[in-house]
Each structure stands twice: as C-alpha cells, then as structure tokens.
Amino acid sequence: MQLNPFDLIVFVGFIVTVVTVGVMMSRDEKDSESYFLAGRGLSWWLIGFSLIAANISTEQFVGMSGSAADYVGLAIASYEWMAAITLVVVAFFFLPKFLRAGIYTIPEFLEYRYSAAARTIMSVFMMIIYVFVTIAAVIYSGALTVDTIFGGQTFLGLEVNLVTASWAIGLLAAIYVVSGGLKACAWADLLQGSALIVGGAVVMVLAFRALGMADPAAVGLPAEMAGAGAVEKFRHLNAAKLHMVLPKTDLNIPWTALVLGLWIPNFYYWGLNQYITQRTLGAKSLAEGQKGVVFAAGLKLIIPFVIVIPGIIAFNLYKDQMAEEAIKSNQPIVESFEEAQGSPGSARVAFRFDGDFAKLHAEQAADILAFNAALAGTTPDTGLPPAEANAALLDVIAAANENLPREERIEEETALIGRKYDSAFALLIKHLIPTGLRGFMLAAILGAVMSSLASMLNAASTIFTMDLFKEYIYKGASQATLVRVGRIGVAAFAAVGCIMSPLLDNPAFGGIFKYIQEFQGFISPGILAVFVFGLLVHKAPAICGVVGLVVNPIIYGLLKVLAPNLAFLDRMAVCFFVVLGLMALITFLKPLEKPVELPVQTRIALESSPGAKMAGIAVVVVTLVLYGVFW
C-alpha cells in the first residue's frame, strides 16, 4: 500500500503534533513528583482519555482483533466489558486507599502494608514483565502492522520491515517520555486516544460496507443472500462467533474463566498495574480520579465494536490473505522440516501443526505426521483429525524424552500455522482504507503503540527509580538525579524492547495477545491476592506479602508443566486461591497483635464523588445488558 503526498503530510503532521504537545505541556517537570506523577494535578477528562489510550494499543488492534478473527469471536470482548465493571470497583475500593497513602508506585504500598521485602519483590517482578513482555510485545504488534501494510517499501532510505519499524516506534515514544514524563504521556494520550477511537470506527464502517458489497460466493454465503444487507450477512456468517461462552475445555477463554479466572487479570491490570494506575495516582483529588476512572469505564463499553467486530469481518473477507501471511511466517520451519526429512536417521526434531494448517496443506501435514510417527516409533491414530493425531505423537515423544540424556532428546519445532490471524486488522486497513485516509490510519496505529509504549516506559522507569534506585542504589539522591535516572531508564528500556520485538514473530508464542496474558499470569494472581488479603484482613503479618508473591510463579509454572491443557485463566484462578489459602493459614497461626497503620497524606482532597458513583452504577447495568444480549 502506497502513501500519496497528502497521506504523508497527515501522518508526519500527526506524529509531530503529538510529540510537540507532549513536550510543550510538560516543560517544567523538574522534580520527581512532577516527572513521574504530573505534579498530582491531572483532571478527570485527561485521566479518562489517558487510561483508554494507554490501554488500547495494537495489543488490541492486532491481538484482540486476531483472536476475534479466529474461532474465539466475540468472546474476546470479555476483556473489555468485564474491564468496565472492574474499573468501577477500582474507583471506589482501590483508588481511595492509594491516594490516601500518597504513594508514587503500587509496590510502594506493599512496604506500608507488609514490608520493604514485599515492595522489592513486586518491583523486580513488574520490571521483568514490563521490559521483557509488555514493552517488547507492544512494539512488536505495532511493527507487525506497519510491516504487513508497508513491508518491503523504502522510507527515508530504509527498507520497512519488523526491525526498522520496531526501532522507529521505540524512538518516537521515548522522545516525549524522556522529555516530560507522565504529563507528556497524558497530553499526548488525549490526541492519540481520540485517533484510536475515530480510526477504529472508520475501519468498522468500511468493513461492514465491504461485507455488504461482497459477492456471496466469495465470503461463503448462499447465492440467495446477494441482496442481503451487511448486518444480515454478518450475522449469518458469524452466528457461531457472536456469543460470550466457549466450552470449559477451551484454552483461551473457557466459560469457567468468566466466573473467576478473567477477573484476576482484570483487577490486576486496572487496579495494580503501574502503567495504568499511574494516571490515577496523579489525580488532583480523589473525586477527579474517580470521575476519570468511571469515564474510562464507559468508553470501554464501545471498544469491542471498533476492534472485535472488525476482526470478525476481516476473516470473512480476507481469510485467504491470512493464509498467505502464515506461509511467510512458516517458511523457516518448513525449511527445517525439509532438511530433517532429507536425513531421517539423524533427525532430532519433531514438528507440530494446527488444524488450519492440516486443512490448507493436507499433503504437507500428512508428511509431517508420518515423519513424527517414525520418530515416535508408533502409528498415528487415524480416528483423530490430523492435528490431534500429531499432537498425540508429540506426547509420546515427550514421554520418551524423560528417560533420555539431554543430548539425545528429540526437540519440538515451532508450530506451523494455517492462518496468521494477527494480521486481521492490518489487512482491513490495507484493502479498505482509501488514499487520503491511509496517512491518518497509520498515524492512529502508531499513536496506539506510542501511547501504550510511552505509558509502560514511564511506569518501568518510575518503579526502577523510586523502588529500586532510590531505595538500594542511592538513598540520598537529589530530585534532579531521580529525574535524570528516570529519563535514562526510559531510553534503556525502549532499546531492550526494540531488540526483543522481532523475536516475537515466532509462531510459538501463539498470538501476541495470548503471549502477554499468559506470561502475566506468573505474577498477577499473586499480586492481586496479596493486595486484596492485606486490605481486607487487617491482622495479616508482614511475611504474607513475601510468601504470596514468591509462591505464585512457582505454582503457575508447575501447573503450566503438569497440566498443560488447563487454560491459563483457570491456572490463574487456582494460583489466586492457593495463595489466599496460604496467607490465611499464616495469619491464623501468627496474626498481628494490632492492625498496621497506613500513612495518610494531606496534599489532595479525599472526598468521594457522588456523581461518579451514580455513573459507575449505570456502567455496570449497561455491561450486564450487553452480556445478556450476547450470552
């Protein structure tokens, strides 16, 4: 897809405007409170837009729309609609306690409630997740979109690919975060958040228009539906995808996760995740913070209509192109198989493929099945679909590996995929957006990346500076030194993310959205359990914080190995309850003699907002209605 001069003017103009506004609105951020918390002066409307912009990135436009294009469909919208309810709870349960304590970071609260050790453990865990999972993943998802649309073209003398796109995105976001901290993020988010919603709405309208005009045969509809409208065609094609309930055996969002598992990452993300909560910690008052959070909750209700629905339509229109994108990703693995097939006696690698691959490349799947059967020393089960029969062979190989020395074990290659669902939104843009709007859409996509990436970089640098550097490296650091360290941290973390980003193109990660959620499970259930238990059980001793944080990744890792068929959301639920049980036992055996007294700051007003409470109730009611309609 080519950009004409007008597209380039719009694109460059938008990016320059975002960076300029971010820098200009935060020129005087010279002390740590100004740099990291915007001087605790953010208004509700700025908080609300900034929360949405920080959250809705290409993680959603790429990952969530990709999951919607796959079999998951509308069920993936639970991440958004459940978040609306979660935000209302955060506004009136978590936020008052955090603002009352006057904290800079979420881990800092654990020191007041439990111990310095708990604060440090959480800080280290969050740093690892931010730098090696979320920052890298957001950069990758944006780079993937740019590469899908413009890959192979030359811009400013550089070929557009995953590597160059990753570095361009990381550099652009880092520029205004280094300059102005949280206030720069918030003002840039105001522009970028608006562009996200408008851009998503434009794509949705054009997607429905294209579906309405499509030849029935081309999208798998009977000929008599030639005169049907877009909505009727959409409902007919996607009846199986327009509901919120998936089987309890599903590995992504089983219905059991709607009961409990999905609430865990939601409450962790919106209530305890530094790069999100940092906006609310910068509120000028509790009432402003609550109004901003509830405003964001209302905006969350519309997100599935501009992200999930277009993803579903993308499959209807462009499933063949998704298969072509998969062929590109599969090429290194196919070459590895062909090499192994040429020397079967010395091959020490087995190959996995998904159901789509088996249907689209039946002959190649049969060759792989026969190859793996030879490695396993058995015959495949002809009563199973090819992908399942192959998975059974791989289980036999894995069992045999346990009795072999490491150098003799058969390794498993990355899975071959039939369609690259994460390309769904990019394909809509590539095929539907007319010349003249392409520059705006590209700017909106990069705005999505930069808003989330900037938030993560600022949060990671805040945790590193205030929870680690100030506490353990240089306790007497001046305000100027803290700001300088924060800026250096932003640049360093951006560089690490750009280096790691292209590595995530490996299909082994199973889609970027699942990758992020899966790895956050190592920390999120434990963090949520520690906070909830500490806030509700006032005599929980300090050791509870350490035990809860340390035990969770161990349990989650064991479940991942010993129960691989248990959905990651269900693993989170198990971890959450085990950690709660351990803390309850410790408290029963050795309770505190008297409750811990938390600090109380007096700088900002702490009166709650009655109006925000009424609006929050309305958001919850509308969310329940949406679930009732699409259940």
Q: What does this molecule look like?
A:
With 631 residues, the chain is mostly helical. The protein has two domains: 5-14 and 36-320 and 423-520 and 601-630, Sodium/glucose cotransporter; 350-410, no CATH class. It is built from 26 helices and four strands. It has helices at 5-24, 32-37, 44-55, 58-69, 78-101, 106-113, 116-150, 162-213, 216-219, 230-237, 255-261, 263-272, 274-281, 286-300, 303-342, 355-360, 362-376, 386-401, 424-432, 438-473, 479-500, 512-520, 524-536, 543-562, 568-589, 610-630, and strands at 154-155, 158-159, 349-350, 411-412. The protein has a two-stranded antiparallel sheet with strand order 1-2. A two-stranded parallel ribbon has the order 3-4. A hairpin with a 2-residue loop joins β1 (154-155) and β2 (158-159). α14 packs parallel to α26 (610-630). The radius of gyration is 25 Å and the shape is globular.
